[in-house]
Prior knowledge:
Blueprint: E1 2-8, H1 13-34, H2 49-78, E2 85-89, E3 92-96, E4 101-103, H3 104-128, H4 132-144, H5 146-157, E5 162-166, E6 170-175
Amino acid sequence: MKIYRELNLLEDKKVIKKMNIAALILMAICYGVLLLPPFNQNIFQSSPFPVELGAIVISFLAIIVIHEGIHGIFFKIFNLKGKVKFGFKNGMAYATSPGTMYAKWEFFIISCAPFVILTAVLLIIMDNWPYTWLRLLIAAHGGACAGDFYWCYLLITTPKNLLVEDTEVGLTFHKVG
Length: 177
């Protein structure tokens, strides 16, 4: 196999800066969407500021752990033998299955599964328990998915005959045949 392209998301300062900007933009977009119908049908309740701040901080930390855990589950679904590692580097939490190869469609699912699953669950919770801080949590999680969305973009825009190797710092695309 021949290497088509290598990407380093965790150590490339320019990419990290762009991901942080993209995360802020995505967060603002997600929050704006949550202000539109049907997401604003309930009367949202507020708690005292310290309670809301505590709720958002604790919930966001829990969401990060769950988000990376979902990546780990999907790494295992598509390759039971692959080893999954979790870490935190340069302000980014990550799950990785270093050295494991995946079909592009598999890696696409691995990349977007946490956003889809957690957003659906959080929207259901928000519909039944309408607290203002949940809106911010959903938007913050959407913004935090910027790296995952970047992977999905790359997967869509690269040639079909590639395998994706997960590395501890990013991805390597391998040309098959």
